[in-house]
Amino acid sequence: MSVPQLTESHPSIAQPEPVGVAAAPSLDPAFGSDRATRAVAIVALAVAAVVHVPVAIEHLTELPYLGYSFYGLVLLAAAALGSLLVESRTFVWRGALVLGTVAVAAYVASRSVGLPMADDDRGDWTNPLGVTAVCAELVVVAVALLVLGHRHRHRS
Hints:
This protein is mainly α and 156 residues long. 65% of the residues lie in helices and 0% in strands. It has helices spanning 34-62, 64-86, 90-112, 128-153. The chain starts with 33 loop residues before the first helix and ends with a helix.
């Protein structure tokens, strides 16, 4: 009879989970891994944040409420991005969904009816920074919806 070494793990003995480490739920194979999903959202949030920095600086002197709104978007996108780098939490995905949805709605409003004291962007649907930002924000919304939908369907 052989005695297992202390450094070996025996199949009949359950190994404890490391303390303080939350396992990220894996997604079904058709959807992809949680790590890949987070990576897509992280890149999209980074693009949305970076694109809004020059616009925030420009609008801060002209229309302070708009400049501060852009800085708020940058900070919230950075916070969501940083959180997703660490772990995949439902509340972060919900926040990213709200952030992306509000940003897309503001883009549509600014291009269609205009924003208060700022109707210079009305009709400017093809502005390169605007298109880049709204595409990144739509990716955030789509990925967040997929993740949250998956989690809702697989709750116990």
